[in-house]
């Protein structure tokens, strides 16, 4: 049995040994299998510990996303069955354990750093600073699916000399965690602006950092874009509204001081350069499933949304069913299981484009991208009454989303499926002006917010499932209809995930404090609409 957050595997990350820069597998070793470390190598061990939950890995997609978030978001189609709205325990445990593996790695990084002299710490401080950005990104994701989680006291087994009992961690309130992270990220943004890297460590940074390749400006963009995401997430919460509005205005009004991701060239993502290295997306294929499998099939709502608006991303994201005569057909979630099964067995249902998505071993690990940032801007400008800026950000995001999928299409090595034609500028322009998409044809703020929400949903689909689920819950847009499972206590999709059984078993005293809120129907603090 796995002892998870509060009792993270004794000696789990006792860290990195010397390595050869010429050998990728030595540069990025598994820190749980080695005996000595440096700040630089432990930084990489920290990043690699959850890479398969950023890159589209098999375990994450197969045990978790295909039967939970991707269904709740209706980014896929599936056959209805009793119990479908109860998250599988294996998938929930996997994401929980993976996160606390990451956190244990971060605690080990802190431990190694704290063992250095003052001069050694000064030279390496930037490793600690950027590591915290990545940690907070992954922590926000956990808060947004569970609510309260152990954090401030978690992952301390190694630090506490292997003492499990003294390492049991309390669950931190989600609003308190959001405040802590937003405070730190604001300080980090200022710190990075004053940071210079010793020339002797720049090469090491480029080698050890497989996210931004040692580009400090990219880490600044990551930090401020993450701030935008988090500030927007809490924008409807009374206690955060003033802060959300003022800090977003400060970030967007001072691009030099607070740079954000503006173009797809600046996207924060794990790129795949060599599929024979540990950084690859080979697991995507089986994670979604081959052929017509309820993990890569199309849902009716998304197919209709794309088709009715003549969205050129339709051909980038989907392939028609083998016997559909070129038509794009999705599974209706309100149909009977028999009708859904017959449609699928007849080869009528569209599947995700194999060439672009699951057979593409070069598919990047998406963290934050330009279309996402511009859709956040559009939402902020709309609620601030700046219609012209909202329109510009909204239309820019659509064009960038099409370019985003063009780029993924262009790096694919898939032998399955047929490479679709890239979306052209003319197609993007026509789409932006069309019915169901045109900003000018929406006459109220509510209608314009619905446009923004629809474009988020399309852009995220199953590529950014956590952001997709968070925005759907927060905005209640787009409107999704689900079959009611009257044979189960959980009749509709949940609004959060339950804590895994291992955490309940091994951290009982601290779990008791959150037991009453551990329900699938308990809304997150930012889910107020």
From TrEMBL:
Annotated TM spans: none
Top-level taxon of the source organism: Bacteria
Gene3D superfamilies found in the cross-reference section: 1.25.40.390
One Pfam assignment: SusD-like_2
Record-given protein name: SusD-like starch-binding protein associating with outer membrane
Organism: Dyadobacter jiangsuensis
Organism taxonomic ancestry: Bacteria, Pseudomonadati, Bacteroidota, Cytophagia, Cytophagales
């Amino acid at each position: 049995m796995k002892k998870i957050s509060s009792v993270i595997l004794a000696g789990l990350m006792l860290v990195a040994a010397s390595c050869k820069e010429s050998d990728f597998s030595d540069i990025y070793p598994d820190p749980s299998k080695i005996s000595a470390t440096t700040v630089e190598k432990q930084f990489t061990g920290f990043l690699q510990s959850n890479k398969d939950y950023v890159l589209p890995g098999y375990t994450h997609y197969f045990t978790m996303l295909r039967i939970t978030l991707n269904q709740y978001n209706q980014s896929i189609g599936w056959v209805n069955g009793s119990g479908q709205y109860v998250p599988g325990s294996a998938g929930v445990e996997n994401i929980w354990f993976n996160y606390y593996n990451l956190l244990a790695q971060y605690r080990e990084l802190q431990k190694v750093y704290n063992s250095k002299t003052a001069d050694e710490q000064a030279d390496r401080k930037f490793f600690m600073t950027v590591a915290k950005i990545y940690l907070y990104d992954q922590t926000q994701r956990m808060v947004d699916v569970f609510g309260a989680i152990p954090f401030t006291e978690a992952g301390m087994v190694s630090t506490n000399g292997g003492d499990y009992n003294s390492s049991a961690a309390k669950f931190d309130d989600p609003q308190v965690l959001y405040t802590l992270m937003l405070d730190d990220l604001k300080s980090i943004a200022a710190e990075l602006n004053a940071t210079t890297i010793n020339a002797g460590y720049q090469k090491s940074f480029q080698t050890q950092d497989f996210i931004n390749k040692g580009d400090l400006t990219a880490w600044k963009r990551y930090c401020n874009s993450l701030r935008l995401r988090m500030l927007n997430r809490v924008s409807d919460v009374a206690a955060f509204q003033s802060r959300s509005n003022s800090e977003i205005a400060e970030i967007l009004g001072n691009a030099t001081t607070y740079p954000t991701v503006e173009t797809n060239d600046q996207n924060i993502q794990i790129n795949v350069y060599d599929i024979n290295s540990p950084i690859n997306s080979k697991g995507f294929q089986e994670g979604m499933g081959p052929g017509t499998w309820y993990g890569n099939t199309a849902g009716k709502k998304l197919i209709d949304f794309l088709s009715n608006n003549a969205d050129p991303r339709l051909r980038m994201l989907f392939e028609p069913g083998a016997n559909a005569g070129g038509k794009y057909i999705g599974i209706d979630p309100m149909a009977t299981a028999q009708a859904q099964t017959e449609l699928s067995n007849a080869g009528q249902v569209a599947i995700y484009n194999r060439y672009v998505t699951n057979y593409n071993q070069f598919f990047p690990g998406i963290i934050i991208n330009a279309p996402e940032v511009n859709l956040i801007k559009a939402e902020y400008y709309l609620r601030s009454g700046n219609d012209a800026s909202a329109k510009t950000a909204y239309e820019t995001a659509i064009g960038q989303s099409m370019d985003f999928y063009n780029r993924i299409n262009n790096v694919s090595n898939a032998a399955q499926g047929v490479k679709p034609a890239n979306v052209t500028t003319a197609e993007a322009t026509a789409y932006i002006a069309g019915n169901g998409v045109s900003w000018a044809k929406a006459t109220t703020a509510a209608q314009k917010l619905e446009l923004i929400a629809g474009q988020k949903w399309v852009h995220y689909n199953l590529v950014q499932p956590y952001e997709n689920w968070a925005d759907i819950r927060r905005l209640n847009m787009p409107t999704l209809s689900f079959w009611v499972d009257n044979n189960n206590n959980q009749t509709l999709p949940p609004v959060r995930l339950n804590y895994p059984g291992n955490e309940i078993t091994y951290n009982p005293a601290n779990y008791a404090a959150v037991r009453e809120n551990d329900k699938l129907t308990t809304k997150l603090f930012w889910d107020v609409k």
